[in-house]
Amino acid sequence: MSNDWLIILYVAFALGAICAIGIASELRRRHFGPAHPEDTVFRCAKCGNVYTDDGDVERSRCSQCGKLNEPMIF
Ligand SMILES: [Zn+2]
After folding, report:
1. Quick one: pLDDT at residue 38?
2. 35 alpha carbon – ligand 1 mean position (Å)
C-alpha cells in the first residue's frame, strides 16, 4: 500500500516537474517573443558586414559604415 503511494507521488512529482518546465519555457518564449520578432538578416553591400535588425523594417543602416541595405533573402 505504501509502495503504491510512493509510485503515485513519484509520478505526480515527475508530471508536475514536466509541467513546470513547460510553463517556464512558454513564459520565457512569450517574454522574449514581442521584444524580438523575426529578426531580418542584412548584409552590407559596401563593407560586407552581416548584421540583424527588426523584421518590420524594410531597410537597415549598417552599423559599420552607415550604408542603407536591403534585407538578405535566403
Ligand atoms: Zn557597411
Report:
1. 76
2. 25
Number of domains within the chain: 2
Predicted TM-score of the model (pTM): 0.48
CA–CA separation, 49 and 19 (whole Å): 42
pLDDT digits (tens, 9 = 90+) for 15-64: 999 999 999 999 888 766 555 567 889 999 999 999 999 888 889 999 99
Q: Are residues 42 and 71 located together in one domain of the fold?
A: yes
Contact present, 52 and 39 (Cβ < 8 Å): yes
Total length of the chain: 74
Cα of 51 vs centre of ligand 1, distance in Å, is: 9
CA 40 to ligand 1 center in whole angstroms:
16
User: Is residue 69 domain-shared with residue 49, that is, in the same domain?
Assistant: yes
Which is it for strands 68-69 and 50-53: parallel, antiparallel or unpaired?
unpaired
Tell whether 19 and 44 lie within a shared domain. Answer: no
